[in-house]
What does this fold into?
Amino acid sequence: MEAAPQKTSTGKRPLIKALFLLAFIVAAVLIVRFTPVKSYLTREALGQVLESAGYWAPLLFILVYTLGICLFVPGTLLTTVMELLSEAPPAFPVSVRVPFRTAV
It folds into this structure.
């Protein structure tokens, strides 16, 4: 009994995926560069959001982290940004630093 030969067709699908990824990256860069979004991504603005969130800041971090992962933003980048926004001593892990910042 012979197995049916498997079809390996690359077709246009990988090209379409690559074009969507490229379009997404270009759109993200254009939005950040040419709209007021850029002013919301400064350390001061993000720090102010965390301070105003109070005890909800850890939950906000979890939600932003989850959204970032769904949008394929590397976790290392998200963790580094949160670490830079935190004012706790650098020896603390991020999971301790977020509540530390909101409690102080």
